[in-house]
């Protein structure tokens, strides 16, 4: 079975023509749309086009009925069949197997599904169809390959990304390439020079909560406590949900702790690769890990545990107060360690919350 990626599909069709079967599987909506657009472009205006979505009451006899009716006219026919769960069922499996054994002329069947597992590839219907056309994997690139993908995607819209911007956008849009594409289209209109810099992104994304989560992370990495509180305020103004960004705090604490334990080890490249930390961010992490005391790291782990209990078990502590202390320790604000020692449920929350909200 031949396997292609969406960016290879156009060249494949130009070289070999449109095959009778195309298997389009993967979770990324943007790459799926790209592949479908390439396929549709190779069918003229006179071609018959159908788009079916399998449902509980889907009638599989449509495949054979369409074959019989189209044979009278002999026109090119494109059939797009979506399988939301990659499982056509017994009737569907038989129908697809039968279709593969008696392929109609001038027909192309595009079977569209989500992430493809081994059990799907080993099914009879899939093996039958795979004999007549390639598998196109529409799976989002892993994070290590994402900056290259983003760079090429920006070029499609005549945009040039400044140094470090592809890596930053990888953090912002990992797992949501459709949102990335929408932003690139918008920036094409907003940018006079066509060059996307960090400053441009700051201005363009200031009102979007999607970016503010990562802006919070950048403030923490820069040790800017006041700015981190401001970013947190913006997030809570838009959606009062700590679960959405608490993973950033957990990730930072765990990574800094691991770096601290590797103090003196000149080669921490494997650790950075494992945590997907870009090269331009690595010196800052090393410096912060060196400057944080073991006592501070213990306090950070203690506070993150309390924050999780406050969120998951309703312990009675204020997640806001705990988060403010966590930010202070991560940004190495001198007064935070002492405050974290004395923090008790319902003791200082009101004063701290008022101070926080007034920033």
Automatic annotation (TrEMBL):
Q: Reaction catalysed?
A: DNA(n) + a 2'-deoxyribonucleoside 5'-triphosphate = DNA(n+1) + diphosphate
Q: What is its EC number?
A: 2.7.7.7
Q: Where is the DNA polymerase III delta N-terminal domain?
A: 23-137
Q: Which UniProt keywords apply?
A: DNA replication, DNA-directed DNA polymerase, Nucleotidyltransferase, Transferase
Domain DNA polymerase III subunit delta C-terminal residue range list: 218-333
Entry similarity comment: Belongs to the DNA polymerase HolA subunit family.
User: What NCBIfam families does its record include?
Assistant: holA
This chain's protein is named DNA polymerase III subunit delta
Question: Which organism does this sequence originate in?
Answer: Idiomarina piscisalsi
């Amino acid at each position: 079975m031949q396997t292609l990626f969406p960016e290879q599909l156009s060249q494949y069709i130009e070289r070999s023509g449109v095959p009778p079967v195309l298997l389009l599987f993967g979770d990324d909506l943007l790459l799926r749309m790209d592949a479908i657009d390439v396929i549709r472009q190779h069918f003229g205006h006179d071609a018959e086009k159908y788009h079916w979505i399998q449902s509980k009451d889907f009638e599989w006899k449509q495949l054979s009925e369409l074959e019989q009716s189209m044979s009278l006219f002999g026109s090119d026919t494109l059939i797009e069949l979506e399988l939301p769960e990659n499982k056509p069922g017994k009737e569907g499996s038989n129908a697809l197997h039968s279709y593969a054994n008696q392929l109609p002329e001038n027909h192309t069947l595009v079977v569209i599904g989500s992430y493809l597992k081994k059990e799907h590839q080993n099914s009879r219907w899939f093996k039958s169809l795979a004999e007549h056309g390639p598998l196109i994997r529409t799976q989002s690139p892993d994070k290590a390959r994402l900056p290259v993908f983003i760079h090429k995607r920006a070029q499609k819209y005549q945009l040039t990304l400044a140094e470090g911007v592809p890596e930053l956008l990888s953090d912002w849009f990992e797992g949501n390439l459709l949102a990335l594409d929408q932003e690139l289209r918008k920036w094409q209109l907003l940018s006079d020079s066509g060059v996307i810099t960090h400053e441009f992104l700051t201005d363009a994304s200031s009102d979007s909560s999607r970016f503010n989560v990562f802006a919070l992370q950048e403030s923490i990495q820069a040790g800017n406590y006041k700015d981190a509180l401001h970013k947190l305020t913006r997030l809570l103004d838009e959606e009062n949900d700590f679960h959405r960004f608490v993973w950033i705090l957990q990730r930072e604490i765990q990574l800094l702790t691991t770096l601290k334990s590797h103090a003196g080890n000149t080669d921490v490249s494997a650790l950075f690769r494992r945590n997907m930390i870009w090269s331009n961010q690595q010196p800052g992490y090393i410096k912060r890990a060196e400057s944080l005391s073991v006592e501070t790291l213990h306090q950070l782990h203690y506070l993150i545990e309390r924050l999780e209990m406050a969120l998951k078990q309703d312990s009675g502590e204020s997640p806001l107060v705990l988060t403010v202390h966590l930010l202070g320790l991560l940004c190495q604000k001198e007064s935070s360690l002492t405050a974290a020692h004395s923090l008790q449920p319902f003791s200082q929350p009101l004063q701290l919350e008022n101070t926080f909200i007034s920033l």
